[in-house]
Write a structure and sequence with these properties.
single chain, alpha+beta, 2 domains, six-stranded mixed beta sheet, 2 helices
């Protein structure tokens, strides 16, 4: 593997502002749902069975953790997007290997092996994962943005292959 000065490549978690807003709203919803057992316990005057109490105690931290992960993902996406806008350099990502992972539920996923390079970007190899598209095939070339300090990269989703 050819690496730039910064080490291993990392696919940026980029998203439009609407996607980040949806993650944050979902996180708040999870946190509110985690409070429901406490509200029911406080407001209702009935005896909880042991299994309902155990379910509430288990559910609260799990739902809280799911919300925290959604919030953290939104933060990473915002930070990666801002960093690529500030320090990103244009590059070309050529697909040198492609695999389609078929999902039992939901859309198929493409796992692409890329060779990324540009005028201000030392060549490196990276792995890119996203929803499968027909143009995700060996030999396709995509415009990319790279922060060459550590090879943080994103393919420009609106431009397609070159």
């Amino acid at each position: 593997m050819i690496l730039g000065e910064g080490g291993n490549a990392r696919q940026a978690e980029t998203d439009r502002a609407g996607g980040r807003l949806w993650l944050r709203v979902s996180a708040v919803f999870c946190w509110l749902c985690a409070l429901i057992p406490l509200a029911v316990w406080y407001l209702e005057d009935f005896g909880w069975s042991w299994w309902a109490l155990v379910a509430a105690v288990v559910m609260m931290p799990v739902v809280t953790a799911i919300g925290a992960e959604m919030w953290a993902t939104a933060n990473r996406a915002a930070a990666d997007t801002a960093r690529l806008r500030q320090a990103g350099r244009p590059a070309i990502a050529e697909v040198v290997g492609a695999e389609v992972v078929h999902q039992e539920e939901g859309p198929d996923t493409s796992v692409l092996s890329l060779r990324v390079s540009g005028d201000d970007v030392p060549p490196f190899e990276a792995t890119y994962r996203s929803r499968h598209r027909p143009d995700h095939r060996v030999g396709a070339r995509f415009e990319a943005v790279v922060d060459p300090t550590d090879n943080l990269f994103a393919l420009d989703p609106g431009l397609g292959p070159r």
